[in-house]
């Protein structure tokens, strides 16, 4: 029983009565909360914990559920400094002329058909396929710091980083991708309600301070000097990162500083995940890095693909741990095929269904043969027109659930 002793300390009449009443009310509330706490405690003991539908610790455990991106509504991004830095000179006119407009419709129609085939094959292999919502990427939006139109919801790997039972929404670094998360929110909320953890990384302002306005293009005589000095179009003004600059291998996660991921962004991920994970910041002989999965790719326990054109400066980290380092063959995609936002090395941007099955490009015969020699069954198809939008099989997806457990491999 709650006992309250009223002591006169100079209050009179109504004021004293009011304060005594307040104390009594507070005491009753405390008593209620105490009893409520006990009740809630009992309820909690009988509740069945939610089993998260999200669980993925690496790139090779048996795949059960995946998000595949959408072609619908894809628009060419405005040709801002951060986009220009990553665009080959021969595609500048395309981007300048079509900025804020849809990609060529005939090309998009072929890309959409390829992605539908991709989804069908995944389902035939026993994988549950989920898709983002269709949103209007043509809308112009304004923040206090910039104005832009959108791009697409084609590459979920760029924006969603799945670590164990947690989905991390990446902040991104392109202004045209600021609101891209909206296409995935209905899926993420569904996963959250079912027990998944959900974190949104701090959204950057994307003000002018985040970008080096004087960053040279590929024809600038200072370009190689900038590369040698490890300078990038994004500054350290605030954390930014794309999820695709992180490669998972259990408790070890490999990251790279790139045109869209800065050291502050990598540090944020490191602090957020804590001591349970080891974040290894790698660097490569790559003058224009963006997204690690066409440069270094972990395909099985102790096996890593390393791009022969972009050697890893820390490759001994893998060799000393007994890993097999495989250099994939050079891509065979013809120069005539448009790659508006990517390189030919999408040939190694594959999707592992497990350690014995891989989805890869039917036309990249040398890569197909490489997997066969490794004892991995290639499941082949072409998404060449989808490649033009900036990604391969890995980029076009985010694995939501793989059957396995969290382990250390280094």
Broad CATH class of the largest domain = Alpha Beta
Strand content: 15-25%
Total of DSSP H or I helical runs spanning 4+ residues: 11
In total, how many beta strands? 17
CATH topology value of the largest domain: L-arginine/glycine Amidinotransferase, Chain A
Q: What count of domains describes the coordinates? A: 2
Radius of gyration: 26 Å
Find the structural class using helix and strand composition.
alpha/beta
Q: How do the strands of the widest beta sheet line up side by side?
A: 2-1-17
First CA to last CA: what distance? 60 Å
The residue ranges in which pLDDT falls below 50 over 5 or more consecutive positions are 1-46
Proportion of helical residues: 25-40%
Q: What is the CATH-assigned architecture of the largest domain?
A: 5-stranded Propeller
Task: Summarize this structure as a short list of keywords or feature phrases.
disordered N terminus; L-arginine/glycine Amidinotransferase, Chain A; alpha/beta; 410 residues; three-stranded mixed sheet; 17 strands
What does it look like?
With 410 residues, the chain is α/β, with parallel strands linked by helices. The longest helix has 34 residues, at 13-46. It is built from 11 helices and 17 strands. A hairpin with a 2-residue loop joins strand 5 and strand 6. The model is unreliable at 1-46 (pLDDT under 50). The strands form 6 sheets. It has a 3-stranded mixed beta sheet with strand order 2-1-17, covered by helices on one side. It has helices at residues 13-46, 81-84, 92-98, 105-124, 156-159, 185-193, 223-228, 263-273, 316-320, 365-373, 384-387, and strands spanning 63-68, 128-130, 140-142, 147-149, 160-163, 166-169, 197-200, 246-249, 252-256, 278-282, 296-300, 303-306, 324-326, 351-354, 357-361, 377-381, 397-402.
């Amino acid at each position: 029983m709650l006992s309250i002793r009223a002591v006169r300390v100079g209050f009179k009449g109504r004021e004293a009565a009011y304060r005594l009443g307040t104390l009594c009310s507070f005491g009753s509330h405390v008593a209620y909360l105490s009893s409520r706490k006990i009740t809630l405690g009992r309820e909690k003991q009988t509740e069945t914990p939610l089993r998260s539908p999200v669980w993925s610790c690496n790139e090779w455990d048996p795949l059960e559920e995946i998000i595949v991106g959408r072609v619908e509504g894809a628009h060419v991004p405005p040709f801002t400094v951060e986009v220009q830095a990553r665009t080959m000179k021969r595609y500048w006119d395309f981007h300048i002329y079509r900025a804020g407009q849809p990609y060529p419709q005939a090309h998009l129609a072929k890309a959409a058909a390829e992605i539908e085939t991709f989804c069908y094959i995944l389902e035939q292999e026993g994988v549950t396929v989920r898709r983002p919502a269709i949103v209007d990427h043509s809308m112009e939006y304004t923040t206090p710091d910039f104005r832009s139109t959108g791009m697409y919801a084609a590459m979920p790997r760029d924006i969603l980083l799945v670590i164990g039972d947690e989905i991390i929404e990446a902040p991104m670094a392109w202004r045209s991708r600021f609101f891209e998360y909206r296409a995935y929110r209905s899926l993420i909320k569904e996963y959250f309600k079912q027990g998944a953890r959900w974190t949104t990384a701090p959204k950057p302002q994307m003000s002018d301070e985040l970008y080096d306005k004087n960053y040279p293009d590929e024809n600038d005589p200072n370009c190689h000097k900038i590369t040698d000095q490890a300078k990038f179009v994004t500054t350290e003004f605030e954390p930014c990162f794309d999820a695709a600059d992180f490669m998972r291998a259990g408790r070890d996660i490999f990251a790279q500083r790139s045109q869209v991921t800065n050291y502050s962004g990598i540090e944020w991920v490191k602090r957020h995940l804590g001591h349970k994970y080891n974040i290894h910041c790698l660097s490569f002989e790559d003058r224009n890095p963006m997204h690690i999965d066409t440069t270094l790719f972990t395909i099985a326990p102790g096996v890593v693909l390393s791009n022969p054109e972009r050697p890893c400066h820390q490759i001994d980290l893998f060799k000393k741990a007994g890993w097999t380092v495989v250099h994939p063959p050079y891509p065979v995609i013809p120069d005539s095929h448009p790659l508006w936002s990517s390189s030919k090395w999408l040939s190694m941007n594959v999707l592992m269904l497990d350690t014995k099955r891989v989805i890869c490009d039917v036309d990249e015969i040398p890569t197909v043969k490489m997997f066969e020699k490794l004892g991995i069954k290639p499941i082949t198809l072409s998404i060449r027109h989808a490649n033009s939008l900036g990604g391969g099989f890995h980029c076009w997806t985010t694995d939501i659930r793989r059957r396995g457990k969290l382990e250390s491999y280094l």
